[in-house]
Amino acid sequence: DNYILTIFESSDKTMFVGTEHGLARYNSELDTFEKIPMFSVTGDVELLAYASGIVELNEETLYIAASGHGLFEYDKKTNKARQSNLKLGYYISKIYKENHSNKKRISQMHLGPLYVSVHTTNPQLRAEMLNNKRASEIMQNLKWLSDNDIPIHTQIVLCPGYNDNEELKKTLADLYSFKNIVMSVAIVPVGITKFREKKLKTV
Questions:
Q1: What is the DSSP letter of 69?
Q2: DSSP character string of 95-147
Q3: CB-based contacts of 99-106 (< 8 A; 24+ apart in sequence)
Q4: How far apart are CA 74 and CA 86, in angstroms?
Q5: Model's pTM, two decimal places?
Q6: Fewer CB under 10 Å: which end of the chain, C or N?
Q7: Spatial separation of the C-alpha atoms in residues 201 and 203, rounded to whole Å
Q8: Per-residue pLDDT reduced to its tens digit, 46-91
Q9: E-strand spans in 1-49?
């Protein structure tokens, strides 16, 4: 009377099962499945949730997609899952950035929409703005999302002298070329504090 929705083996070879009654972990020593409590955002209410998808972020954390309850973050140390108060796309985007091996799972589960901080589609400029060489792969990543029909919401933090004017026009044109998956483009002004090392202008 408990339908299995998904089966997942983590990097440490632990088996997890998502069912209509929640999440369970296999205990090899006792040869049995142990129910994992899934708590609300506040952490004081245990929820009954369809655990329909499981993705591993790293050795300590899993994310559980639960129908009707959004996303849960599972901590292997505490053996508890807690409902996230952030949007699904934020975490899936984080998973996509941190572990490219999860791209296959994102495609298979058709997770979305994702929330992608684009800023610019100029590879060199994006790598400079984010201080990350891998950030230059934005067009390849957008193409992969498009090829796999993963919908996205995009954001551009506008930094005068960097990604405005002609750079902004090119970025918008590039995003338009992916109109089959781009659901929205949000352009927001850069926020500057006194702790900013680089000299940036306000919009």
A1: T
A2: HHHH-GGGHHHHHHHT---EEEE-S-S-HHHHHHHHT-GGGGGHHHHHHHHHH
A3: 99/56, 99/57, 99/58, 102/55, 102/56, 103/144, 105/55, 106/55, 106/148, 106/150
A4: 15
A5: 0.53
A6: N
A7: 7
A8: 888 888 888 887 888 898 888 667 788 899 999 999 987 655 455 4
A9: 4-9, 15-19, 22-27, 32-36, 38-39
